[in-house]
Specification:
This protein has 310 residues and is of the alpha/beta class. It folds into two domains: 155 residues, Nitrogenase molybdenum iron protein domain (Rossmann fold, 3-Layer(aba) Sandwich); 114 residues, Nitrogenase molybdenum iron protein domain (Rossmann fold). The chain is 45% helix and 12% strand. The strands form four sheets. A four-stranded parallel beta sheet has the order 2-1-3-4, sandwiched between helices. The chain starts with a helix and ends with a helix. Bound molecules: zinc ion (ZN). Zinc ion binds next to loops.
Length: 310
């Protein structure tokens, strides 16, 4: 479609010529977010003036996302692309290289100190089954609300640079949003603080909650590493079953976007019931329990504290 693509490219150039009327009712800013949680943050800061495309949508596993041709078109047309970084979206890095993307690229995790992914975090005595995870960085920094606030500030700066005319509005929305996230962070600390420390052990499908655990004082154990790409080995699953039985761990959770097979088997063999579905790497759809970043924390913390108390 060379004609329509040329029309798309020409559009931003034509805008300044439209004058006062156009500025009063600016055209939506085409933006792309790599996955649903960043899409929600971007919407909070950018408001209604965005024409947003979210690549890995609700309940989709962004680790193994398969982009469509229309995603590449959206990337080419975007004035701003927001990604997590820290190796979370290898497919996006390949797309960006191929798509000839012209707009601004924001890495939301920029400036944070990443956690190293590794068996040492989870009390493994040996980690050979984890192989390549040894030196990997943990990408799930949004699971700490203070780091989430850093994401929002980084997104604000990128949005203001891509859309200077809207800078004041973006700043005002970001300020209100950051205040809500700070209050939510305090609520999470208070809720977790009511659970006896010895009870704060949780099993999930993959290592998505390392930052959450470090921030809020919960120990998370998972049969899968920080990516969902590799299936856990039988030996790793057997080791976890022994651990559950030995320590009497009953807070076992599925994740909304991960394959439930391993976790269901693990829970059945350890004789515990799965306590529900945590939202790890993706939000729910609008009618689900975690349609926003904030709702995701309220939902997860409600489930976690009830299960940990036992
Ligand atoms: Zn993940």
């Amino acid at each position: 479609m060379p004609l329509s693509r040329r029309a798309l490219v020409a559009l931003p150039l034509a805008l300044p010529a439209l004058g006062r009327a156009a500025r009063a009712q600016p055209a939506p800013l085409p933006v792309v977010a790599s996955f649903s949680i960043l899409g929600d943050m971007l919407r909070e800061v950018g408001g209604d003036g965005l024409a947003m495309r979210v690549l890995a949508g609700p309940d989709v596993d962004a680790h193994s996302f398969q982009p469509r041709p229309s995603d590449a078109q959206a990337l080419r047309a975007a004035r701003l692309v927001v990604r997590n970084g820290l190796g979370f979206e290898p497919w996006l890095d390949r797309m960006l290289a191929a798509a000839g993307q012209q707009g601004r690229l924001v890495t939301a995790s920029q400036g944070i100190t990443p956690r190293q992914a590794g068996p040492a975090d989870h009390g493994h005595s040996h980690g050979h089954s984890h192989g390549h995870d040894h030196d990997a960085v943990d990408p799930h920094a949004w699971q700490d609300l203070r780091l989430g606030q850093s994401y929002v500030r980084t997104i604000l700066a990128g949005l203001q640079a891509a859309d200077p005319a809207g800078a004041a509005g973006h700043a005002a929305r970001a300020e209100a949003y950051l205040a809500r996230l700070a209050a939510l962070d305090a609520w999470v600390r208070a809720e977790i603080g009511r659970v006896p420390e010895a009870r704060r052990v949780v099993v999930t499908s993959h290592d998505a909650f390392g930052y959450f655990g470090a921030a809020y004082g919960v120990r998370f154990i998972a049969p899968q590493g920080v990516s969902t790409a590799a299936e856990p080995s039988a030996a790793e699953v057997a080791r976890l079953i022994r651990l559950l039985k030995r320590e009497g761990i009953t807070a076992v959770f599925l994740e909304n976007m991960a394959n439930p097979a391993t976790l269901n088997r693990l829970a059945a063999e350890a004789g515990v019931t799965v306590k529900g579905r945590l939202y790890a790497d993706a939000l729910s759809s609008a009618d689900g329990p975690a349609p926003s970043y904030e709702a995701m924390f309220r939902h997860n913390v409600g489930l976690l504290t009830a299960a940990m108390r036992g």
